[in-house]
Design goal:
105 residues, alpha+beta, GMP Synthetase, Chain A, domain 3, three-stranded mixed β-sheet, globular
């Protein structure tokens, strides 16, 4: 990965951390809802993500929120968000930082 893409990846991750799950007061990145993040050489971003549950009340809104937040990052050309439920999300996917924030460590 080039330095340019590495810097852009860091900015995209910062943007993802501004999106929060409404049921758990932690950002979607630290919750482990982002399964894949790719940035190609022309600054197009691909995100594969899931939700804490397929019945999540924001199932229709969350991918759009992610798309808007990432598209607002300077240098991002285009964004594609794919919502998947396989593998299912599990609390073991939560980052250590988020576990600390939730008081679970």
């Amino acid at each position: 990965m080039t330095n340019l893409n590495k810097n852009l990846e860091e900015k995209v991750i910062e943007a993802l951390k501004r999106v929060h799950d409404p049921e758990i007061p932690v950002n979607i990145y630290d919750l482990g809802l982002i399964y894949e993040l790719r940035i190609d050489e022309t600054s197009n971003v691909y995100i594969k993500m899931t939700l804490t549950t397929p019945n999540c009340p924001v199932a229709e809104d969350m991918p759009g929120n992610v798309l808007q937040e990432v598209k607002s990052v300077e240098g991002v050309k285009d964004v594609k968000v794919e919502l998947v439920f396989d593998p299912p999300w599990d609390k073991d996917m939560i980052s250590e930082a988020a576990l600390l924030e939730l008081g679970l460590l």
